[in-house]
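Cross-posting from the chemistry board since nobody answered there.

I work mostly on the small-molecule side, so proteins are not my area. We synthesized zinc ion and want a rough idea of how it might sit in this target. Sequence and SMILES are below. Is it possible to get a predicted 3D structure of the two together?
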Amino acid sequence: MNKKRFLMIMLAALMVFVLAMTGCGKQSEGAEQADASAETEAETSDETEEGSVIDYMVLVNQNSPLPDGWEDALELTTITNSVGDEVQTESTAYKAYCALKEAVEKDLEGYEKGEVRLELDSAYRSVAAQQKIVDDFTEKYGEDYVKKYVAVPGYSEHHTGLALDLYFTIDGKDVYENEDLVQYPDIWEAIHARLPEFGFILRFPEDGEAITGYAYEPWHIRYLDSPEIAKEITDKGITLEEYIEKSE
Ligand SMILES: [Zn+2]
């Protein structure tokens, strides 16, 4: 291998690394210098069959399992978050998340406790990965907690790639654990206020447990690919279950 070719390969590898580390490339200085083809390669790892379409209004909950063949049609974007975990998200939902992140971070400029940066804890999960969460959380928080907060493998909205669990950093410090995240209602309020315009809803709102099966989770948002529908659901204060039931 000649020296020039070696350098080119090293440079390409570095670009891919920078993109993978920074996720929403637009906001990172490093990523701006990367060309469009490198970005596509780094961010998209799809095996989408031609003509396959995702139903962004799909309902997956404790009574409705993931539809057959869903994962064959799923196009995923992979990033690495601030704690070093790889996170995969349905690609259109990921683009919307990046726009949401930019808007929220702007809204929170000058926040009293420091600079807030939105991060992705978890989005797409395979059934096997969900089983691991059940095992880990049972050990960490106990069976009762898991029954209340964690989905049975096959029945998690995270299998769709359209459900995103958020966390954030304040002045570069990770606020990551659920018990720490709930200490910042003001930040969640700022995040939730911006969800509908980017096609997201708060999926497990307060007092929604009887319908959604889950207690309040400020971090779990769901992409619907429609700001209009997201706004209607939010304005009416209803859940996705209620919206789908009404429109059937
Ligand atoms: Zn979640």
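Reply from a structural biologist on the board:
Welcome over. Reading the output above for you: Residues 1-43 form one domain. The longest strand covers residues 163-170. Happy to explain the token format if needed.
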